[in-house]
Write a structure and sequence with these properties.
This protein has 467 residues and is α+β, with helices and mostly antiparallel strands. 36% of the residues lie in helices and 20% in strands. It is built from 17 helices and 18 strands. The strands form four sheets. Strands 15-12-14-13-17-18-16 form a seven-stranded antiparallel beta sheet.
């Protein structure tokens, strides 16, 4: 189910373009190539370029841009690194793309309180580089080097989520510019509060539809004393997933546990020049003291063996560990490389752990009917897995086939108490599934949207269909 481009697009008025040029100078551009770049993300969705791009450097500049757009009734579409996967950055109704990538300053780090405040354009890798000598790190790691503002807006997750949680848990507070240009500061640095509505959690995951995030205060985590990384292959995906379920039920505080099916292992071997067995494989990472890491690894090995897993293959050097996890993070690009000229249609669902094996096995049975490359990869430690459909968007028959397979995948997840998206978000590709998942909540969601953005100018055409 893919939304259609809006027919209500109109060009931004010259008076607005002049105002933004006066405000930002050369950092406001109408260049067609730059606009085209800002209208597409990593998804299969058709791009839709904005009328102009504003490269902002401060909250105050965001306020000026938003106020100018509000005066002229022109949409505002936030842009970070352009790595979203459900068409979030497409300017479906035209308007101005507000690029926050130059808002890249780490404003404050408190090692004693284990928190930091950053501008929205700071990336997760640059933050961790800044933290290198503090004994702390920021653990949320979606595959690309995304901006932290974008990660908050999409409620991003990643391979560490099974132990460290998602952006929902990591964000302590936000600075947000609202549709009228006013600034709101949510949350704070206290580790808990009962004061008022939890506006932080409202904006985290709002996908730029309620306000534009300009600063983020984040919870940091101590770097582990020791860590170890291993892989283990299995005869079947079902056996691998069942071993994961038993591991989680044992209460082990595992840091990462990732599943790659045989096709995905073939893809990363080719793309990342590795030589792993092309069988369903789990990637493990254990954190803690040296003794606890050894204990975790021993228990994981025992459980894997009980489910037919092979011997653990250990990444013993920092270089080997980095290469392994980079290959995992490059899984999307490796999948696309299976079919030169293809485009990824990545879909993700998340289900209760007890339903995970059945859901993946039944999905594999569906995929076996397709001639398209459709590898599976997932953060199975929290019930989240992805199918990467590789298609030719110019062939309607292929797009129709993938739409059918994706529909079965999502409906299966919803039927067993899961969600239509564990971390990619709704964008404009999963709006109908949001309505299926939360039919009783849509009215309340629309009321919140109308209250905070009565003109419907923030990222229109995303999250929910108009009434």
């Amino acid at each position: 189910m893919v939304g259609a481009l809006s027919p209500r697009r109109r060009a931004a008025p010259p008076a607005l373009l002049q105002a933004l040029s006066a405000c930002l100078g050369a950092r406001f551009t109408l260049n067609a190539g730059i606009c085209e770049q800002h209208g597409r993300d990593e998804s299969h969705h058709a791009p839709s370029a904005p009328d102009g791009v504003a490269f902002v450097e401060s909250t105050e500049e965001v306020v000026s841009v938003v106020q100018a757009c509000a005066r002229h009734g022109v949409p505002v579409v936030p842009f970070g690194a352009g790595t979203s996967l459900e068409g979030h950055v497409a300017a479906l109704h035209g308007g101005i793309s507000v690029d926050c990538s130059r808002m890249n300053r780490v404003l404050r780090v408190s090692a004693a309180d284990m928190d930091a405040t950053v501008q929205a354009g700071v990336t997760r890798k640059s933050l961790n580089a800044e933290l290198r000598d503090t004994g702390l790190f920021f653990p949320i790691d979606p595959g690309p080097d995304a901006t932290l503002g974008g990660m908050a807006a999409t409620r991003a997750s990643g391979t560490n989520a099974v132990r460290y949680g998602t952006m929902r848990e990591a964000v302590l507070g936000l600075t947000v510019v609202l549709a009228d240009g006013s600034i709101v500061h949510t949350g704070g640095r206290a580790r808990k509060s009962s004061a008022g509505y939890d506006l932080t959690r409202l904006f985290v995951g709002s996908e730029g539809t309620l306000g534009l995030i300009t600063e983020v205060t984040l919870r940091l985590t101590p770097q582990p004393e020791a860590s170890s990384v291993a892989t283990c292959d299995f005869d079947t995906v079902e056996a691998a997933v069942n071993s994961v379920i038993q591991l989680l039920q044992s209460g082990m505080p595992i840091a990462r546990i990732e599943l790659l099916d045989q096709l995905q292992m073939h893809a990363i071997n080719r793309y990342s020049k590795l030589s792993y067995a092309e069988r369903p494989t789990l990637f493990f990472e254990f954190h803690g003291s040296a003794a606890s890491v050894q204990e975790q690894a021993k228990l994981a090995g025992t459980i894997a063996t009980e489910h037919g897993g092979g011997a653990f293959s250990w990444a013993t050097t920092a270089e080997q560990r980095s290469k392994l996890w980079q290959a995992r993070h490059d899984a999307l690009y490796a999948a696309v490389a299976l079919r030169p000229g293809g485009k990824a249609w990545p879909s993700d669902v998340c289900v209760p752990i007890s339903e995970l094996a059945r859901c993946i096995v039944e999905t594999q049975q569906d995929l076996a009917t397709s001639t398209l490359p459709c590898p599976i990869v997932g953060h199975v430690g929290d019930g989240n897995f992805h199918v990467i459909f590789v298609v030719d968007p110019d062939l309607p028959a292929q797009m129709s086939e993938v739409a059918r397979l994706n529909d079965r995948l999502v409906r299966r997840a919803l039927a067993c108490g899961g969600t239509c998206t564990g971390e990619h978000g709704i964008g404009w590709g999963k709006m109908d599934y949001l309505a299926m998942e939360h039919p009783s909540a849509l009215k309340a969601m629309r009321a919140i949207k109308h209250a905070l953005d009565p003109g419907g100018l923030f990222n229109p055409g995303k999250m929910m269909r108009s009434l």
